[in-house]
Amino acid sequence: MRLERQVAIITGGANGIGYAAVERFAQEGARIILADYDKSTGAKAAEELREQGHDVTFVQVDVADRDSVKNMVTQAVDIYGGIDILVNNAGITRDAMLAKMEMADFQRVLDVNLTGVFNCTQSVLPHLIEKGKGKIINTSSVSGVYGNVGQTNYAASKAAVVGMTKSWAKELGRKGINVNAVAPGFTLTAMVEKMPDKIIDQMKSIVALQRLAVPQDIANAYLFLASSESDYVHGHVLHVDGGIMM
Ligand code: CAA
Ligand code: NAI
C-alpha cells in the first residue's frame, strides 16, 4: 500500500484521468475526497467504490468558485481530520481559433484551469503546513508546453500551471511540501474523444509510441508523485506523453 491512510483530494475525480486516479489511489489505501462539479457521475462513482470497500467521499465543487472550494476543504478536514495530498486535476477546454475565440470562453478556461488550481492550493495549504508535509500535484499539458492550434486559452492556462508549480516548489520546499506537475499528452477521455477523427489521427502521428495515452497512464504518474517514492522530486514537470516532448 503506497498511500496507506493518506488523505487525498482529487479534483475532477468523476471522469477521465481524475477518475482513474481515484481508483488507483484507492487501490493503494488512500482515503479520498472525489471532488467534482459533475454531481451525478461523481456521487455514483464514490458510492460504487465504497461498495468495493474503498474509503471515497464525493464532494461537489466548482474549483473556480472560492467559497465552493473552501467548503470542499472544510468537508475534507471534518471527515478525515486532515489532508496529505492535493491533485489539481479538474480542467476544461473551449477550443477556437484566435480570431474567433469568445472572451467568455477565454475567461472560463482561465477561471477553471488556472484560478481553480490557485483556489484549491491556497485553501488546502494551511492543512499541509500544519502537518509539516504534503504533496501537491498539478496538471499541465503538452499544449501548455508546446502550444496548440485552437487552444490560446487552454495553452495559456496550462503554461501558467507550470509557472505556479515552480514558484510553489520554491516557496514550500522549506515547509516539507513537495510540489510537482504532470504534463499529459493526448489522453483518451471525453476531452479528446469529442475531437474529429482527422484531428485524433493527427495527434497520434506525433506520438513516438504511436498510441494515445489511456487515463491510467496519467494516474500512475500522479501516484508516483503522491507517494513517498518521489520525496526528492520537486518542482518537476513530468511529461507523460508517449514521447511527443523530447
Ligand atoms: N495544425 C495546423 N493547422 C490547423 C490545425 C492544426 N492542428 N487545426 C486546424 N488547422 C487549420 C485548418 O486546416 C484551417 O486552415 P484553413 O483556414 O487554411 O482551411 C484553419 O486552421 C481553421 O481550422 P478549422 O476549419 O477547423 O476552424 P474552425 O473554426 O472550424 O475550428 C477548432 C477551430 C475548434 C480549433 C478546430 O480546428 C479544432 O477543434 N481543432 C483541434 C484543437 C485541438 O487540438 N484540441 C485539443 C483537445 S485535447 C486537449 O486539449 C487535451 C490536452 O491537454 C492536449
Ligand atoms: P475530462 O473532461 O474527462 O474530466 C474533467 C473533469 O473535471 C470532469 O469530471 C469535470 O466534471 C471536472 N470539472 C470540470 N470543470 C470543473 C470545475 N469547475 N470544478 C470541478 N470539477 C470540474 O478531462 P480529462 O481528460 O480527464 O482531463 C483531466 C485533466 O488533465 C485536465 O486538467 C486536463 O486539462 C488535463 N489534460 C488532459 C489531456 C487529455 O488529452 N485528455 C491532456 C493533457 C492534460
UniProtKB/TrEMBL annotation:
The keyword NAD does not apply. It holds the Pfam family adh_short_C2. Gene3D superfamilies: NAD(P)-binding Rossmann-like Domain. The keyword DNA repair does not apply. GO terms for molecular function: 3-oxoacyl-[acyl-carrier-protein] reductase (NADPH) activity; quinone binding. One of its GO terms (biological process) is fatty acid biosynthetic process. Keywords: NADP, Oxidoreductase. It is an enzyme of class 1 (oxidoreductase). Its EC number is 1.1.1.100. Residues 6-185 form the Ketoreductase domain. PROSITE patterns: ADH_SHORT. InterPro entries: KR_dom, NAD(P)-bd_dom_sf, Sc_DH/Rdtase_CS, SDR_fam. Belongs to the short-chain dehydrogenases/reductases (SDR) family. This is 3-oxoacyl-ACP reductase FabG. It comes from Paenisporosarcina quisquiliarum. The gene is fabG.
